[in-house]
Every structure is written in C-alpha cells, then in structure tokens.
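Researcher: I'd like a candidate sequence for this fold, 161 residues long. If you have to choose between options at a position, lean toward the conservative one.
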C-alpha cells in the first residue's frame, strides 16, 4: 500500500469524529513501516485494548476505520481478512460504526480480524503440508489477492457503497 503520513492517516478516517481521528496514533513511527509489504495497516490503541484502527486502500485512497473489539474472550477462529488457517489464536470480533448518517444513527458492521493486524505477514508465509505442495509463489500471490478483496469488501460495507 501507499505510505501514510500523519496527515494522510488522520484524514483517512471515515467513521470517527475529528477528535477521535486526531487521537488515532499508531504505537510505532510511520517512517519505519514497510508499506510495500502491507495490504492493510492496523494497530490497537496504546491505552485501550478494545480500541483498534485499520487503514484499507480502496480505489487508490486510504480508508481509515475505527474498530471496537467485543469484550468477549477471543475464540480460536479464522480471520475474515487473511483467512489464515494456522494463526487463529488472536482473532477478535471487531465492530465498526458505519460512515456518515448511517453511523450517526448507530449502524455498525462487524467482522473477525487478527488482533495483531499482521494479516499481510500471514499471507506471505509458505504453504504448509495441509495446504499441499503448491507453488509457494502462486500460493502467496493468491492469498495476497484474497486479502485485498476481503479488506476492500469490509471497507465498502463500512462506507455503505
Ligand atoms: Zn488476519
């Protein structure tokens, strides 16, 4: 994905107030992020472990989404973005307020996402024995494509488009 700056990150949010967007600060420096290896960029808030943020590129523009994790204990389940079958231990149900008028009325959309937001890393791992002796490059390319499609679909649901 395209590198984000503090300003483009702040401006990307579609379901926050201005204040919430200003307070959405990743716990690491944006200059140190390897953007070329990311399809989605996300983090958990430093002081509130139930508050998350994810940025998904859509039609060339970053779409920033504020997420709330359900307080329930995390069950072992598959992340709806990267669909990884190995790393199923830190997947949370996140709920996002929809953008615009729908969100102001209280409409939300939910999805299962890795709480560490390492989905881009997961899809770059080599296929294991269960996944067969497929061509690893093709396997990884297909998974990257699926991650992009799943993430875009989630962003569109939040945007209501
Ligand atoms: Zn994931």
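Model: Candidate sequence:
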């Amino acid at each position: 994905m395209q590198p984000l700056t503090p300003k483009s990150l702040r401006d990307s949010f579609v379901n926050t107030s201005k204040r919430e967007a200003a307070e959405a600060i990743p716990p690491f420096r944006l200059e140190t992020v390897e953007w070329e290896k990311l399809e989605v960029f996300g983090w958990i808030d430093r002081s509130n472990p139930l508050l998350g943020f994810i940025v998904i590129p859509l039609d060339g523009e970053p779409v920033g989404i504020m997420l709330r994790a359900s307080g329930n204990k995390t069950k072992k389940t598959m992340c709806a973005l990267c669909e990884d079958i190995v790393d199923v231990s830190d997947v949370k149900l996140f709920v996002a307020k929809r953008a615009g008028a729908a969100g102001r009325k209280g409409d939300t959309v939910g999805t299962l996402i890795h709480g560490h937001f390492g989905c881009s890393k997961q899809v770059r791992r080599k296929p294991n024995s269960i996944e067969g002796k497929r061509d690893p490059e093709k396997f990884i390319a297909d998974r990257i494509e699926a991650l992009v499609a799943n993430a875009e679909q989630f962003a569109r649901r939040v945007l209501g488009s």
